[in-house]
Amino acid sequence: MDGYSFSTEVRIRFAETDAQGIAHHASFVVWLEVARVAYLARYAGGYQAIRDSGLEALTTEVVLRYHRAAAFDETLTIWTRCVDLRGARFTYEYRIERAGELVAEGHTRHAVVDRETYRPTRLPAWLAEALATAESSAT
Amino acid sequence: MDGYSFSTEVRIRFAETDAQGIAHHASFVVWLEVARVAYLARYAGGYQAIRDSGLEALTTEVVLRYHRAAAFDETLTIWTRCVDLRGARFTYEYRIERAGELVAEGHTRHAVVDRETYRPTRLPAWLAEALATAESSAT
Amino acid sequence: MDGYSFSTEVRIRFAETDAQGIAHHASFVVWLEVARVAYLARYAGGYQAIRDSGLEALTTEVVLRYHRAAAFDETLTIWTRCVDLRGARFTYEYRIERAGELVAEGHTRHAVVDRETYRPTRLPAWLAEALATAESSAT
Amino acid sequence: MDGYSFSTEVRIRFAETDAQGIAHHASFVVWLEVARVAYLARYAGGYQAIRDSGLEALTTEVVLRYHRAAAFDETLTIWTRCVDLRGARFTYEYRIERAGELVAEGHTRHAVVDRETYRPTRLPAWLAEALATAESSAT
């Protein structure tokens, strides 16, 4: 995918469908999180490492545009990239495809906070560098 | 709430929280749906009536901005209004509050489709009128 | 309901249905928790009060028997009672009805643990008494 | 695993955790379904094939005993076997492990019904044979 170098796959669970016979639109929000966790595992030692260092990444914005319905047992590819790191904030962009066909796209924004106080905290240097390296190596 | 005349309440379930100790961000997407269902029950005979008439309303876009974390057992008020009906499409706007304080806000877009063919279908007149009346009476 | 004095209602959400067109069986597990939370709010100051006193109630067993399918937007009544308190353990029994008709029934078992160590801890006297009083007053 | 020849792995998602800091107990019910779907994909052409033949498998009973808490990002192995096929009914047994350690165990019961009428229907011969073969080859 143009501009994306990382992708994760999810297989749609039966529990993720609804009575419309398709994947419920809220399931996609969970899959974006699965993709972020896989991204951090690949490039930054995993989300649990970030949590273990006393931080949490809160989600401050979700934007999703759904282009096609997706059905039980289909495999979706979630192209994921991290953009716009500054201070305590960063953004992920996503493109969700099924066999090369666009199913949905969107972005999420996040703020790093201290796990105890829930106050915004600059990304630690190791994490900012890991994410920056991930994306620069992507191009 | 300014410009909103309809609201629904949700009480945050334990299952809707996550290991950050707060409501998971995907739970909000489900609550917006709960609010739409309540809105349609109030103004348009209920979502099931729409389904029974051979239609489904697909969600084509979700936008949510999270301003404050919300915790287990808190009661949230979801202010909801339907805007921009045209042809097969309509938009809902939301403002989620806890005791008058803004917790999140956003909108969702929808397309009415035929339940069998999944093709976009004009909102039936009764539904378009019901929604228009709901919002005009709101002001 | 025979032997039950407390009930909660849940309205089935669209997100809780699946592609079989009915409520997903895992949704019932969440509703049992909603019923426990309501029960504790009524008889024991709420689950958050228990958590605030440094305890968590872990679920150690779930048993559910499904007798009838339930559909979107239906209202279910969850009859709930607490039985068998001893030491750190207690059991809830449930009967889920729709307009007086049995939809599902089951029980859950729980162990009270310390929030920090996750070690089993005797129910504090105030909680054991609150639960015992709730059930004795029920008969 | 003794008596089990099939297993599936699930990686615990952040959305599947709760404010106790561990995987929510209802998440396990969804994982059992993931395991059944994987089992059917391996031995019986997939659950969608069953649905496409006009049948659904309803869940009529869930029994789960939780022995240890499980945390975000852990990988669980779900040992799965199908037992007791008769007429329209069958049972699955499960053993959920983390690195060889028992985390939970249980079973689910199911009834095959016609997708239109929701009436119990004998398992079609091809499916009964596929499941019987799966388990006999397992020993």
Q: What tags apply to this protein structure?
A:
homotetramer, 139 residues, alpha+beta
Characterization of the model:
The structure is a homotetramer of 139-residue chains. The first copy, chain A, has 139 residues and is of the alpha+beta class. Chain A is built from three helices and five strands. Chain A has a five-stranded antiparallel sheet with strand order 1-3-4-5-2. In chain A, a hairpin with a 2-residue loop joins β3 and β4. The longest helix of chain A has 19 residues, at 25-43. β2 (55-66) of chain A pairs antiparallel with β2 of chain B.
Mean pLDDT of chain A: 93
The tally of helices of chain A reads 3
Structural class by helix and strand composition of chain A:
alpha+beta
Computed Rg of chain A: 15 Å
Strand content of chain A: 35-45%
Helix content range of chain A:
25-40%
| Contiguous runs where pLDDT drops below 50 for at least 5 residues of chain A | none
Q: Can you summarize the main beta sheet of chain A?
A: 5 strands, antiparallel
Choose one word for the global shape of chain A.
globular
**Would you list the SSEs of chain A in sequence order as H and E?**
EHHEEEEH
Count every beta strand of chain A, where a strand is a DSSP E run of 2 or more residues.
Answer: 5
Identify the strand order in the major beta sheet of chain A.
Answer: 1-3-4-5-2
